[in-house]
Amino acid sequence: MRITAAVLNKYDTPFEIQDLEIGQPQSGEVLIRIIATGICHTDGLAQHADLPFPTPGVLGHEGAGIVEALGPNVTQLEVGDSVIIGWPWCGECENCLAGQPRYCAQLGPLLAGGSRPDGTTSLSQAGQPIHSHFFGQSSFATHAIARATALVKVPAGSDLSKMGPLACGISTGAGAIFNALKPELGSSIVIYGTGAVGLAAIMAAKNTGASVIIGVDLNENRLKLAQKYGATHVISAGKVEPVAEVKHILGGLADYAVECTGNLNVVRQAIDSVGMLGTACLIGGAPANSEFSVDHISTLWGKRIIGILGGEGTSTKLISSLLELNRIGRFPYDELIVEFPLSEINEALAASYSGEVLKPVLIMPQS
Ligand SMILES: [Zn+2]
Ligand SMILES: [Zn+2]
């Protein structure tokens, strides 16, 4: 079947809108007509080879759409179902069996291998394979093939144009709070980086007993949004030294910090912002092979530094719960979305990098 996709032909070049062929869904897979796909910074990392997804290939990992065809051995879905495409997982390794599919032993190849585990791709052009299955989906396209077990079914008639970002960025920020940190009554939390991921973390923190929520960013506009969505204090990192300001606000160090930027200086600030028995949670993606250092003695005092992927938990529980919080007005992530047609993917990514747009979403042409 012929489809339209935004193809990354070479690293560090713009996406090109091209016609491709998509094959049949294989065992356990589903063909999905994509309605919309969010753009996440990980797509930008892959575009610049900081995540080793092979080219030529199709990125995109926050897709939502309608099931168009089922491969063999798919029993839990029907043609016509509305779905959000969550993260893939093998279902057989120790971590998957322990209920931690975000830490699937096969996660690396499933997210960025560029093909199915058997090496085949779902996409091709003039008989030449095009790398597919980015985050198990490659959804910068009118259609995608994904594993049925990665799909989260949502009610028929749902506004799918608003739901893709729940597959990665928004869930990453919110899941760090709800699944990993679980801040207790009266606790303090500092969120470094108040883009879409950080704002989702702030919205989530507002739903907990944390009584001090501090947003830190360089961008004044994002700091205004941080206050709008639940920050009790904000720190303009270009004007003051953030760790000193955290101490000034709290009269000491924080219980929790969440690092959403992937900037190594900020990673250190997040770690230095929490005190004894505090937890610094790292969720921002830094370029490959990045390293950071910490003050050794301060970490002996019960400090924990943890890395979190994709908000932990399962896509089904996380996405369904966030959708319900959104429906009752307690998690307004959809207000961060700005829509672009697929043909403006490069402009959308640029608007995200500049900070002008918090969460760009590509709307697919429907034929
Ligand atoms: Zn696994
Ligand atoms: Zn992502």
Short overview:
The protein has 367 residues and is α/β, with parallel strands linked by helices. The chain has helices at residues 41-47, 94-97, 107-112, 169-181, 196-206, 220-228, 242-250, 264-272, 296-300, 315-327, 345-354; strands spanning 2-7, 16-22, 29-38, 63-70, 82-85, 123-125, 128-130, 143-147, 151-154, 188-192, 212-217, 233-236, 254-259, 274-282, 304-307, 337-341, 359-363.
Please explain how this structure is put together.
- This protein is an alpha/beta fold.
- The chain has helices spanning 41-47, 94-97, 107-112, 169-181, 196-206, 220-228, 242-250, 264-272, 296-300, 315-327, 345-354, and strands spanning 2-7, 16-22, 29-38, 63-70, 82-85, 123-125, 128-130, 143-147, 151-154, 188-192, 212-217, 233-236, 254-259, 274-282, 304-307, 337-341, 359-363.
- The strands form 3 sheets. Strands 3, 4, 5, 8, 9, 16 and 17 form a 7-stranded mixed beta sheet that branches. It has a 6-stranded parallel beta sheet with strand order 12-11-10-13-14-15, sandwiched between helices.
- Helix 4 (169-181) packs parallel to helix 5.
- The longest helix is centred in the middle third of the chain and has 13 residues, at 169-181.
- It starts with a strand and ends with a strand.
- It binds zinc ion (ZN) (2 copies).
- One zinc ion binds at residues 89-90, 92-93, 95-96, 104-106.
- One zinc ion binds next to loops.
